[in-house]
Amino acid sequence: MRLRRTCKEVTLLLMQAQDQGPLPWWDRLALTLHMKACDACPRVRDQLALMQRATAQWRRYSDEGGSSPTDDRSDKG
Ligand SMILES: [Zn+2]
User: Fold this and answer.
1) Ligand 1: distance of its center to the CA of 62 in Å?
2) Residue 6 Cα, ligand 1 centroid: separation in angstroms?
3) DSSP 3-state assignment of 73?
4) How far is residue 55's CA from residue 7's CA, in Å, rounded to a whole number?
5) Are 10 and 36 in contact (CB under 8 A)?
6) Less crowded by CB within 10 Å, the N or C end of the chain?
7) pTM surpassing 0.85?
């Protein structure tokens, strides 16, 4: 198993986690190891978290205006 990831791969994994939900444990382990060794990627993660919060707020605002039913399907595999 390859646990060393490049910064580019780590960034992709972070965005994938935001988009599709929790990552498998081996990806999470690789992320954790990389975060300890890298200065840049923890900042990227913080920025992504900030953006996600802003997006969630924006969604709340737009939901108040519209009358679309909440479709909260989460596939767990
Ligand atoms: Zn990195």
Assistant:
1) 35
2) 6
3) coil
4) 24
5) no
6) C
7) no
Per-residue pLDDT of the chain (77 residues; tens, 9 = 90+): 678 899 999 999 999 998 899 999 999 999 999 999 999 999 999 999 998 899 889 889 888 865 555 666 666 65
Question: Cα separation of 27 and 3, whole Å?
Answer: 8
Do 10 and 41 touch, CB atoms closer than 8 A?
yes
In the prediction, which pLDDT does 40 show? Answer: 97
Q: How many A from CA of 30 to the centre of ligand 1?
A: 11
The C-alpha atoms of residue 48 and residue 50 are separated, in whole angstroms, by: 5
- Residues surrounding ion ligand 1 at CB below 5 Å: 7, 38, 41
Query: CA-CA distance, 31 to 76, in Å (whole number)?
Result: 21
